[in-house]
Amino acid sequence: MAKETILVYARVKPLGRRQEAGIYSIEDDEKSLSTLEIIVPHDLADGVVNNKRESYKFKFQKIFDQEAKQDVVFDSIAKPVAECVLAGYNGTIFAYGQTGSGKTFTITGGAERYSDRGIIPRTLSYIFDQLQKDSSKVYTTHVSYLEIYNECGYDLLDPRHEASRLEDLLKVTIMEDPDQNIHLKNLSLQQATNEEEALNLLFLGDTNRMIAETPMNQASSRSHCIFTIHISSKEPGSATIRRSKLHLVDLAGSERVAKTGVGGHLLTEAKYINLSLHYLEQVIIALAEKNRSHIPYRNSMMTSVLRDSLGGNCMTTMIATLSIDKRNIDESISTCRFAQRVALIKNEAVLNEEIDPRLIIVQLKKEIQELKDELVLVTGKQRTSELSQEELLQLDKLIGTFLKDNDPDSALDVGADMRKIKYCFVHMKELMNHSKISDRKWLSQHTSEEKDTNKEAEELEKMKELLQQRDNEISILYILVNMLKKEKKKAQDALFQLNAASAGIPCAVPSSADDYYLSVGENMSLGCQEAFEVFKRDHADSVTTEDNKQLLKQRFAEAKCLGEKLNEVRNKINNLKGKITQRHIQKAALAVSSPSEELNMLDPVEEKLRMQIEEEKKRYYFCLKLLPSCGR
Ligand code: ADP
Ligand code: MG
């Protein structure tokens, strides 16, 4: 619903028998607002120079003159609001005017005739009538009746009301939730399933109302009364609930204290009445002002309760009740002025819908069951919320294996079963907590015996260091032994290769002695390598080792050189042998084509080749003899 100003109506009370009518006129306009003009006669100034304006004009949504009947007032003012409330919006109708101007008559009604029924009984009748007609929704109706007297709230439907004194009654207090919604503590909500039950509650409340005698009016109320009809509706099967409230407010008399002519206790009451209406006026002035951020709702109980009705989520209507006899012209003008300010206030009623959590729970339970059924269908297994003993044992086993596995890539796979996953987490947590506790225990023990065991601990520490040192030495020695073994094997291999070479087997000789050390280092872990380096540097024989290393390098170089020479000589010998074989083939071919004696004679070329072979062989054996001294 868009923002709408509060609709303001006026109702003029019929004149009493002895009352003299003030001069006023009503200008009705069907299309726009009606105008009430009040003429102030000069004699009202009581002989003092009268500077007052003579005529005052006020605009109202509609003005009900003295003869207007209750049904007409209901149809024009209350019916549209009741319809909004039935649709799920909040509504408020409040009557404002001096004591005796007809507020109670308009809101509750007169007791003399049935046709004098006021807005409350007529609205109840209308609402229950409508609810009965609408079978598409389930409706629940409650009523509450609050009286605010001297800034204290009382529950007019409290059964203790009749028997107790006012001071002994439970006071209704205001509570505000974080969303700034007002809640009334100790105000009962009575369910009314039909019109009769609701009217009985209204009657009960009315009899409980505070009535005090004043010279102004024999049966005037100096309290504010708020009768509220609470409606909630829901479509069958839907989780959405609509809640709306209709406040029907009969305010205390708006007259000023001076005029009431009361004193003492009653004066205190009158001040209070005026004070709370003064606060109501302040709220209304603040709301009518543009750009006003703070609205002083909290100043009085009544403005707090009507917070939503004034400038909030509500469709609000005001009835200014006027008692336009000569003596009350001033009060009537002040009531009209108040009404003009109220007419400026804009309210925005919104649909009050909420989701019923109980219905949501029912729906969710149903959904869970359906999902469980589906799961059984897919997995072929009935799952309970608890794991079976067998499953638990299997999980313990899996967790054990997982924890023992040093492979960083190892995973604990229990399948897509939240119960198992949760169990694993809980189990791991327990294990962790357990190890933490044992650590703490050890620590506390250690601290309590700290003094006695200080020396022992020091010794233990030393022993540990020593042990560590020994361990390091052993590992270095171990590496060294391995290295020496490998060195020996390498030398033997070299020898074997050289022997093989002499026999014509191709062999690979390491390019340098460094390659050998490198290969030893490669087989060591980084820590071992470091330790080995430290050992080599700090060892007593490090100089000798270094010399030996240099010697070894040199010998390796020599051995390599000899090996190369041997290969070269062997190639030469093979080459010469090849030439002799070729010579033999040529001679054989010649003997076949032209046999002669010459061919059987000594061939000088062949003889030269054989001599060269003998020379090379000598060089070969010489190298071979040299090799053992540099290969070791
Ligand atoms: P208020 O509640 O403003 O003090 P009441 O509603 O009690 O005033 O009205 C004072 C008297 O005037 C009552 O006796 C009431 O019956 C009578 N009265 C008020 N308005 C009308 C009306 N429109 N028609 C007939 N009687 C009325
Ligand atoms: Mg009254």
Name a few traits of the molecule.
binds adenosine-5'-diphosphate, alpha+beta, binds magnesium ion, 12-stranded mixed β-sheet, 17 strands, 632 residues, elongated
List strands and helices in order, with pairings.
Elements: E1 4-5, E2 7-12, E3 23-27, E4 34-39, E5 55-60, E6 62-64, H1 70-87, E7 91-96, H2 103-107, H3 119-133, E8 138-149, E9 152-155, E10 171-176, E11 182-185, E12 190-191, H4 195-208, E13 224-234, E14 240-250, H5 257-260, H6 264-288, H7 301-305, E15 315-322, H8 329-342, E16 346-347, E17 353-355, H9 357-379, H10 389-404, H11 418-448, H12 450-502, H13 513-522, H14 526-538, H15 542-593, H16 604-631
Parallel strand pairs: 2-6, 2-15, 7-14, 7-15
Antiparallel strand pairs: 1-16, 3-4, 4-5, 8-9, 8-12, 8-13, 9-10, 10-11, 13-14, 14-17
Helix pairs in contact: 1-3, 3-4, 10-11, 12-14, 12-16, 15-16
Bound molecules: adenosine-5'-diphosphate and magnesium ion.
Residues 13-14, 97, 99-105, 110, 217, 220, 253, 321 line the site of adenosine-5'-diphosphate.
